[in-house]
Design a protein that fits this description.
Blueprint (H helix, E strand, L loop, with lengths): L3 E2 L5 E2 L5 E2 L3 H34 L16 H11 L1 H20 L1 H24 L4 H24 L8 H25 L2 H4 L1
Antiparallel strand pairs: 1-2, 2-3
Helix pairs in contact: 1-2, 1-3, 2-3, 2-6, 3-4, 4-5, 5-6
Length: about 200
């Protein structure tokens, strides 16, 4: 029995039944992968936003507006390892923008953006080297985050004295980065393989 060509991209057998071409399963798999990535982005952004809101309820004194323990970064680190740098960056920016509009305020949002962008650049660079664990990448991102915020604060208020406290801030950032990285590491190990692959 011979198959006849069909203008729709597939073929028809002698009985008239359509035979699908190999391109259709590939297209379907590509669409499913894109939908999965977008869904994961939305879920992780929602988790990060919820953690940001929880942090805003904790009355901690901070020398720089928007400076928080950084538990929202758990979702960002997970996004980096599951979805890659570009999508993790999008999740982080979306989380910061929504938090700024909903509860933290626009002023704090700019500080958070300075820290968030610095942290993402550092974490992507460290992850690409392959020499750092999830915890190491998280610590690097946390250190870059606080440094970015201090730099922006010093530019706005024009007080270089802020850098005098940077070592203390970095110690706190490293401690927070270890905690965030450890939790993210445990989550990545606990997630089903079909999600992490």
């Amino acid at each position: 029995m011979h198959a006849a060509a069909n203008g729709g991209g597939g073929t028809r057998s002698a009985s008239g039944a359509r035979v699908r071409s190999g391109k259709e399963p590939q297209t379907s798999a590509r669409v499913r992968s894109r939908v999965r990535s977008l869904t994961m982005c939305a879920v992780l952004a929602a988790v990060a936003l919820a953690l940001s809101y929880a942090e805003s309820l904790i009355p901690l004194p901070a020398p720089v507006p928007g400076m928080k323990p950084g538990f929202a970064n758990i979702a960002i680190v997970v996004a980096l390892y599951l979805l890659g740098g570009r999508r993790a960056f999008a999740v982080n920016v979306l989380r910061i923008a929504l938090a700024g509009l909903m509860f933290s305020g626009v002023f704090a949002m700019f500080y958070a953006l300075a820290g968030g962008i610095s942290a993402m650049l550092a974490m992507v660079a460290l992850k690409r080297t392959g020499a750092f664990s999830v915890i190491g990448v998280s610590v690097g991102g946390s250190a870059a985050h606080i440094t970015g915020q201090i730099v922006l604060a010093s530019l706005i208020i024009r007080r270089g004295a802020l850098f005098a406290g940077l070592p203390i801030f970095l110690i706190s950032a490293v401690a927070g980065g270890v905690i965030v990285g450890l939790i993210a590491h445990l989550l990545l190990r606990a997630l089903p393989r079909r999600i992490t692959e």
